[in-house]
Amino acid sequence: MSNYKIFMIGWEYPPRITGGLAVACEGIASSLGRRGNSVRFLVPRMHGDEPVHENVELVDAGTRTELYTTDELEVLRSMALHDFTTRQVFSPYASSEYSGQSLVDITEKLAVMQKQSREIPLLRGGYGDWMYQEIERYARAAYFIAQKTEMDVIHAHDWMTFPAGLACMNATGAPLVVHVHATEFDRSGESVNQYVYDLERYTFHHATAIMTVSNYTKNVLVQRYGVSPEKIFPIHNAVEFELPGAVLERKKALKDHIVLFLGRITFQKGPDYFVRAAQLVLQQIQNVRFVMAGTGDMYSRMIEYAADLGIGKFFHYTGFMNRAQVKRLYSMSDLYVMPSVSEPFGISPLEAMMHGVPVIVSRQSGVSEVIQNCIKVDFWNVEELAEQILRVLHDTELKQNMQQEGHREVQAISWDAPAEKMEQVYGRLVK
Amino acid sequence: MIAVCFYFEVHQPFRLRPYHFFDVGVDPHYLDEQKNRDICRKVANKCYLPANKVLLDLIKLYGSDFRVSFSITGTAIEQFRMYSPETLDSFRKLADTGQVEFLNETYYHTLASLYSENEFRAQVAKHGQLMREEFGYNPVAFRNTELIYSNHIAWLAREMGFQTILLEGIERVLDWRSPNHVYAPEHSPGIKCLLKNYRLSDDVAFRFSDRNWKDWPLTAEKFAGWVHQVAGNGTTINLFMDYETFGEHQWEDSGIFSFLKELPGRILRHPDFCFRTVTQVSRAHQPVGTIDAHSPISWADIERDLSAWMGNSMQKEAIRGIYELEEAVHATGDPALLDIFRKLQTSDHFYYMSTKYWSDGDVHKYFSPYGTPHDAYIYYMNALHDFRERLGM
What we know:
The structure holds 2 protein chains of 2 kinds.
Chain A: E1 5-9, H1 20-34, E2 38-43, E3 56-60, H2 70-90, H3 103-115, H4 131-147, E4 153-157, H5 162-172, E5 176-180, H6 184-188, H7 194-206, E6 209-212, H8 215-225, E7 232-234, E8 257-262, H9 271-284, E9 288-293, H10 299-308, E10 315-319, H11 323-332, E11 335-338, H12 348-354, E12 359-362, E13 375-377, H13 382-394, H14 396-411, H15 416-429
Parallel strand pairs in A: 1-2, 1-4, 2-3, 4-5, 5-6, 6-7, 8-9, 8-11, 9-10, 11-12, 12-13
Helix pairs in contact in A: 2-3, 2-4, 4-5, 9-13, 12-14
Chain B: E1 2-10, H1 33-62, E2 68-72, H2 74-83, H3 85-96, E3 100-102, H4 112-115, H5 117-135, E4 141-142, H6 151-159, E5 164-168, H7 171-174, E6 182-185, E7 192-196, H8 198-205, H9 220-228, E8 236-242, H10 256-268, E9 273-275, H11 278-284, E10 290-291, H12 307-310, H13 313-323, H14 326-332, H15 335-343, H16 347-351, H17 358-367, H18 373-390
Parallel strand pairs in B: 1-2, 1-8, 1-9, 2-3, 4-5, 5-7, 6-10
Antiparallel strand pairs in B: 6-7
Helix pairs in contact in B: 1-2, 1-3, 1-10, 2-3, 9-10, 13-18
């Protein structure tokens, strides 16, 4: 048991999630709380349906005005009004509320808005072109709140929270730990957003310590951000399931094998390698269907790609799926493939294993560092990937072994181990 | 006398519902009944019923001086039976005047002429039978889906006993010649070609309510003037268009119905002009030349070729996927499976998958019941896979 006072700064929190970040944040905060630490978790905006955990206090920086003094509130309001009106005047079409209106209309609206400036939200959260200004405002809000908070350590998750983390460090003198769930290279490939990269680099160099979700990501920080490896502590993510122990009942609606790709259909997830491997598999066997679940900027291109290769009729696409649909898909699948080009961690192979689905993951993923009962391939080696797909589909013994051992292995994973490692890192920093 | 030959295409496809991967192997219902019913009733109220009334009034007013031709697909008639019987009645009333000709086409509005001669013959025969049953009319003229035409298709039509076949009057086949004459297909004596005058037809069908068009607003008087300019330069002006032009593509408030009401009077004011049906025109004139079309043409998009249905690989995959099932479907001998097989052949499904954007893409998008061409493809391929499973493939 330990009892650190942790001031945690996040950007998203379940159930309003856009990716794995929120899920991981909840896992980290709840396990630290369970172990006796007290976590004050700052988010830009709450929606009221967030799950509650022992020793975790969620703090809504955007609407809880009693957190601020009158003067502080005035500062935040004037920043919000300035950012909001600037956006409206210089990019009037960026907001659907104002699209199609003339400048005269907008000017009139502005006059009204100025009078009603108290109604402009201090923070909105989420992702969009407003967020560059918003993360600065979030930093200012966090600075005000941190001054009134007792803390041993600041723990900030990903680049949106970095200005806030730095501000809090300046406000309190407490050590700053930044937690890297993904870098700009994971999100954007080689065409990085320079603003985000610069912010990340500056923060990595000024933070007291850095936690990464894998050795893979630690290497990215060393090689591409010039960060000293001594201050980086890889701590693998964990996963905790609401259905402990139970393998889902297998449901076969189709007689063909089903090979599943599940995730955002974007460059870094390697969907094109999945399609190319499928083409090679289909040269050997035809009783197999490839399901691509998810959406992303390569969605339509991947649909066309399979059609171009003349294998369109072996593919199915589901678009975005909710939790229940994802479960159902796992229960139907014979094999899960994650051919990520760059994956800091990657939680969904663990979910697949929990549901008794054999898994092939790329070696270029953090998750491949923590699991053994799976097949690992290099994402670019589509021949090898195709061969392994065929092997799992044909070798019943191997398949059963992967299902059973994989399930057992994932059950043993919990957030306790990573939480303990985080406490060890805190211990080095707190005098 | 110079004939004005109005021919209207009436078609409603059976649209597929968003057929999810989870439905495959579970749910054998592919059609979007609610959407099909809603659209059928909407178009009936906006177009078929009011336009039929206008035509009936015109026939009463001008007697044998006013005639029109129709082709009504089997999938449209099936939907009228279910969702709008009064529309079918109003077409029967038009048929009863004896001044209306009904053409033959593929019952399911398909691309079978390009993929399966057996399916093509069967679907055309089924449509001919439908025309006899519904309207007591035995068609002798043929129009292929979307006016898809080639030497081979003309040859097939002649083989099947048709006297006339319609096609788009584009320069690619006409060169310097005018569409306002009767032609014959190269190498297929015994059948004549009527070519759509696409400039005048599209003035009504596409440009009527376009406020950026230099000739907007188009009055009946102005249009009759353009028609009359043909005097001395042709024997027929073939105005071929979708019937949905009236009230559905061009809305009532554009004045399209007043235009239609007024036009015959304006045209007939010139003593050398009359209205004739397709077969009347075809029988009254000898071909002045031949039409040679090795690769298929159509009336769709600016390309006037097949790219609206098979321009990208998704469309090609879908088309290949359905036509490769032909033998298996026929082997079952099950009329219900045959009906589904043919409803899945309807060309509209492939049209929705077109990724041609810009000006033509707008048209594709307007007609599509789905958000994107990719959605259209996904739902179609899911349904197709379920169908394949039902065939035991």
